[in-house]
Write a structure and sequence with these properties.
Strand order of the largest sheet: 1-2-3-8-7-4
Oligomer: single chain
Strand content: 25-35%
CATH superfamily of the largest domain: Electron Transport, Fmn-binding Protein, Chain A
CATH architecture of the largest domain: Roll
Structural class: alpha+beta
Number of strands: 8
Order of helices and strands: EEEHEHEEEEHHH
Number of domains: 2
Bound molecules: flavin mononucleotide
CATH class of the largest domain: Mainly Beta
Helix content: 25-40%
CATH topology of the largest domain: Pnp Oxidase, Chain A
Amino acid sequence: MSFILETIVTTRGPDGSAHVAPLGVHVRGDSFVLAPFRPSRTLDNLLRERSASINFCDDVRVFAGALTGRRDWPTVACSVISGHRLQNALAHKEVVVDTVEEDGLRPRFVCTTVHSATHQPFQGFNRAQSAVIEASILLSRLHLLPPEKVQAELTYLQIGVDKTAGPRELEAWGWLMEKFNEKRNG
Ligand SMILES: Cc1cc2nc3c(=O)[nH]c(=O)nc-3n(C[C@H](O)[C@H](O)[C@H](O)COP(=O)(O)O)c2cc1C
């Protein structure tokens, strides 16, 4: 059985810089499977470097930021691989690519963990965090979805934001709504 965790994956660019991208990682036993759609910088970096950090992060601004042009989050050097992890991750794993399952649309990188670390305690869920993640996914798939469906989902997600958001979720939601409005108005 496998399941998916919404994470922030950091890969090393050709110039050594950190590339930060939200990615749903498939957990398959002890392995993680990363499946970036073509074309993507994460995909190019994984093919070249064959390693990545998987960051577990409750600051949902990093998810919304990546979809709205704000990727400059602080990173620190990894412990084992040549790369970076998010500074504000609650925990992270450093993984190396074992095998690549080739695919014209969405290759799969099956990875093994070479290092795990916890940095901060988990502080609990709120509905606004999941609303921001869901709205970020909607934004990344806008070209595939009918506008009425997007609007209906945003109307529902707004309820969780209104009821539970803290400052980080409100800021992230604001960035997303600005972007949705921009796209709506052409
Ligand atoms: C929660 C979340 C999960 C995502 N999961 C994936 C994924 O599994 N594969 C993918 O290609 N894009 C995924 N995306 C979209 C990518 O983050 C986005 O396209 C990103 O820009 C990757 O491209 P890049 O490596 O060129 O930056 C996800 C977005 C969000 C918000």
